[in-house]
Amino acid sequence: RKEEKRQAKRIANRKSACTSRARKKAKIDQLMNENAQLRRLELILSYLPDPIIVVSPTGVITFCNTQVERVFKHKVNDLVGANIEDVMIPKSRGVIKKLIRDMLVAEQELSETSDSNAAIAKKKMKSKSGEGSGSSGDRNIISENTSESAFP
Length: 152
Prior knowledge:
Elements: H1 2-47, E1 53-55, E2 61-64, H2 67-72, H3 76-79, H4 93-112, H5 118-130
Antiparallel strand pairs: 1-2
């Protein structure tokens, strides 16, 4: 009787370990696929002719393409990991803080809406980001030492 229980426990443990390994393998495969997709998107962004700066919700620069070096005269390696506010001229910091805050609010609204309401939330996000864009106060917000304006 005791030996039967021990044997049943071993079998259950083996099944559990097998299931666990299968789950881990599936998760690793999923993460590898997501990583490959992100690398493809990064490559696409790096070839775009416009400067692209990706900023986290906390304001940390997570990606820059090579056009940033040409336009803003800052090395990509120096910018990635830096806070966006640290590389901007002081009078532009409030503008960027507001843009990040508005984008976070819009993103939260998107995640809270159902698929049928996603189009309405996108319109709100576009209308919020469109306020005041193109004004002369939005120019040269990245650095005072650039030869070109931040927004043509």
